[in-house]
Amino acid sequence: MTIRFLLLVNKQGQTRLASYNEMVPLDERRQIEGEIVRKCLARADTQCSFVEHRNYKVIYRRYASLFFIVGVDAEENELAIFEFIHCVVETLDRHFGNVCELDIMFHLDKAHYILDEMVMNGAVVETNKAIILQLATQYVRSGEEAN
User: Other CB atoms closer than 10 Å to residue 48's CB: what's the count?
Assistant: First the structure.
């Protein structure tokens, strides 16, 4: 499973979190994000959540005011990524208590840490929410001790 990028975007198209698993120049990131976000936000709720863009297959889901957008290789299984997005949302929900845009904005480091525990070098390495949250709690505690 090769996840190229994961984006969390609000309904206005503002990127709240971007995680890339490959080197992409900053200008190209902005261009790709803009194109993909416009494409996903313009689609109706009744349309399929899988889109092809350039050399990526883009899978997205909307939860409340946030769009979770994942770019993968063309040969990836869309439904597996769709389930992965749901697992990410459930994990963030458990950590933040019903995750919202403000949680991501004010605790960006924690959100990145949780994603880093789930995905490494584009491969999903952990989906057990209890393990991920245990590691995230340890991370939060170590950060508090440093302060």
Answer: 8
Domains of the chain: 3-145 (3.30.450.60)
* Angular region, 46: left φ>0, alpha ψ -120 to 50, beta rest: alpha
Q: Which of 82, 99, 83 is nearest to 133 (CA)?
A: 99
Instruction: State pTM to two decimals.
Output: 0.90
CA distances to 62, 64, 95, 102 from 98, rounded to whole Å, are 14, 10, 8, 11
Q: Say if CB 51 and CB 40 are below 8 A apart.
A: yes
**Structure confidence by residue, pLDDT tens digits, 121-141:** 999 999 999 999 998 888 767
